[in-house]
Amino acid sequence: MKKTAFIFLMATCLAEGIQAQTLPTLENAVYGGLIPVKGGGGVNWLEDGLHYSQAEKNPAGGRDIVSYSAKDLSKEVLIPARMLVKPGTNDTLSVRSFAFNADHSKVMIFTNTRRVWRYHTRGDYWVLDMQTGRLHQLGKDLPESSLMFAKFSPDSRRAAYVSHNNIYVEDLASGTVTQLTTDGTDTVINGTFDWVYEEEFSCRDGFRWSPDSRTIAYWQSDSEGTGWFDIINNVDSLYPSFQRFPYPKAGTTNSAVRVGYVSAEGGATTWINIPGDPRNNYIMRMDFIPESNELFIQQMNREQNTNKVWIATIGQSEPKHIFTDADKAWVETNDQVTWLKDNTWFTWESEQNGWRHLYRVSRDGKQMVPITKGNFDVISQVGMDKKKGWVYFIASPDNYTQRYLYAARLFGNGEVKRLSPLEEVGQHRYSISPNGQWAVHTFSNSETPPVIDMVSLPTHKSVRLIEDNAAAKEKYASLQLRPKEFVKTQSGDWTLDAWMIKPVDFDPSKKYPVIIDVYGEPASATVQDVWSGGSLWHQYLANQGYIIVSIENRGANAPRGREWRKCIYGEVGTFASQDQARGILDLARQYPFIDTSRIGITGWSGGGSQTLNCMFRYPSVFSTGIAIAFVADQRLYDTIYQERYMNTPQNNPDGYRKGSPISYVEGLQGNLLLIHGTGDDNVHYQNCERLVNELVRHGKVFSQISYPLRSHSISEGEGTSFHLRKTMADYFLKNLPAGGR
User: Fold this and answer.
1) Helices 574-590, 606-617: inter-axial angle, 10-degree rounding
2) What pLDDT is stored for residue 118 in this prediction?
3) pTM
4) What's the per-residue H, E or C state across 277-313?
5) Residues ≥6 apart with Cβ < 8 Å to 591
6) Pairing of strands 594-604, 512-517
7) pLDDT at residue 688 above 80?
8) How are strands ordered across the β-sheet holding 345-350?
């Protein structure tokens, strides 16, 4: 061997060895830590809009609650850790969250928390008097960690909270507790919500103080008559135990929900007589109009294609209907209603002109004036400066995978102005102060870890760098991975966004197998130009010898207008799988290195459903699939989500049949792995069992793994996440041959 050839060979081997060592491992992909990213970009703004607070470790023990000036980062210790020591002990409260009263004379500490379905919303609450240093526990005679949503009255004299589905008010000076409701049971829920309202409407905190501190308005849900679902626990004891909760499946009986108000001193509740069957209408939002004794209430019909707005006055039971938003498909809740000009106007989001835009609506509902105009979607409202007359929102008119900050005049002509820097291409997030003067700004894209700075608005002038994540950027670059490539593909007349990741040793002269990562339902989108930890799971799979692809099908929650999102109404699942099949074949026509004989697909939840639809309906395209936590039959999912996009099974039986993978099991030809948690309270394990039963009936061979008592995330228990990902990787490697040919 010639010396030069030997040196070249040694250098090549050394380079390959270094590269192999630095490529993400499965452990990196599952547990993280390979790319050290700092900062979350969100802050707890104080009411003055000039400062934000956070908890910081105290060297002597515990955590101080401190504030920082947005302008110059000057620091003040608001609550030293020593003030959070439980009386008569040496124990310092572990602060989950905290909230000040209006004048900062008191602070409420949430601690010792427990998870309720998705989030930690139950625990203990303590109140600290900033002037006297007195720290005392709310509801101390109630069971440990049973309080929910405690909050000060506007006058700071009392606090209200929920415990075991009843509402209580506690006088902060005397400690006297008044129980406002007494009928709370497992089926009658006061001041909070049942499973489906929490999951689909994000309803958790179910009561509101009136601005004058005299009244509490609240929701009550009666789940009697709603079907109960049982989750079997076969893990913890010799004999199984059961978790039971009301879960209305599509087309079945909902809880009866109503709203009313009661004096904070106690007494009878006055129920607001909103027309309509309380089991076939939804009351998704309710709040007091600022500085008034009036309630602003949103009510959807069961089909969720009308959102009626009502105003109810304390002291009366008959509300006034002022406004209705409607759509032939579905409408959304309005979560950021803001009152303007002495409560003569309120803001509203609507798709009435084919795009999602902001409007201002007169108090009587007779005038609806655009705040934003144009052929683009307002993705979300993120802040407002009422004094200067600006509203801030996220949009991306030219690239649906990206996100930018825009501003418009609240009383302008609809013209919008981009504020995010032109040179920062990707996605921008903002945590804007209550007065709209300052924002913590986070920029990233698929190759750039978050860069966080403080900006002043509306100029978007950067006043201070908070975190540049230079070390993370350097580490990511050192891995020499192939970045996501954003591309376009076709499905009939529709142009779809997509991305792909290639292996580091990619050879364009060879053909490679593809793994598609799909979601495809209206709740989310996968093709986004944003930092996602370096996409280490996808990178790991790619470097086993695959091209990883994601395609955004019609109906996904992308800012492409009403027609894009709602063309799937009544047929969720059919267009998605069609677009995935057409999309990957069109990519193969564009890129000859895609091997159409080796196409795999995987997805979670709605993505699991689309995986099944693709495997069953397009067996000539997809040869291997892994479906996780999937809906096999849309009739098995909840009323609010499924009926929003499909109407009821009674009114749309053919749509439910066509959209449900279980209808097409006879089409399976390839390799299929089913993964589900038996403790999934969201998409029940029942889906997996029914699908298995149907696959067996049709003589179809498949693989299955069930994770005992794991929830929808399949994350509980030591080693679960790693086991799941290793199972997936091994299954693809065994059944979808890797590498270029």
Assistant:
1) 70
2) 85
3) 0.94
4) CCCCEEEEEEEECCCCCEEEEEEEECCCCEEEEEEEE
5) none
6) parallel
7) yes
8) 339-340, 345-350, 357-362, 368-370
Instruction: Give the HSE-up count for residue 196: Cα atoms under 13 Å, Cβ half-sphere.
Output: 30
pLDDT of 14 higher than 70? no
Which of these, 455, 475, 478, 458, lies nearest to 466 by C-alpha position? 455
Whole-number Å distance between alpha carbons of 25 and 27: 5
Residue 296 tokens, joined: 């602003």
Tokens, residue 546? 């695959």
Residue ranges of alpha helices (H) inside 593-652 are 606-617, 639-646
Both tokens of 57, joined, read 């470790």
pLDDT digits (tens, 9 = 90+) for 299-318: 999 999 999 999 999 999 99
Instruction: Report the Cα–Cα distance between both ends of the chain, in Å, rounded.
Output: 29
Q: Where are the beta strands (DSSP E) in 387-493?
A: 390-395, 404-409, 416-418, 427-432, 438-445, 448-456, 461-467, 485-491
Q: Which residues lie closer than 8 Å to 263 by C-beta, 6 or more apart?
A: 214, 215
- Give residues with Cβ within 8 angstroms of 97, minimum separation 6: 110
DSSP tag of 397: S
The CA distance from 183 to 221, in Å, is 11
CA-nearest of 164, 50, 154, 29 to 100 is 154
Query: Is pLDDT at 543 greater than 80 in this prediction?
Result: yes
- Reduced to 3 states (helix: H, G, I; strand: E, B; else coil), residue 341 is coil
Environment class of 730 (CB within 10 Å of its CB; exposed 0-12, middle 13-18, buried 19+)? exposed
Q: Side chain identity at 487, as an amino acid letter?
A: V
692 in helix, strand or coil?
helix
Here the contacts of 47-50 (C-beta below 8 Å, separation 24 or greater) are 47/100, 47/102, 47/434, 48/434, 48/435, 49/433, 49/434, 49/435, 49/436, 49/437, 49/438, 50/433, 50/435, 50/437, 50/438
Q: SS3 sequence, 412-423?
A: CCCCEEECCCCC
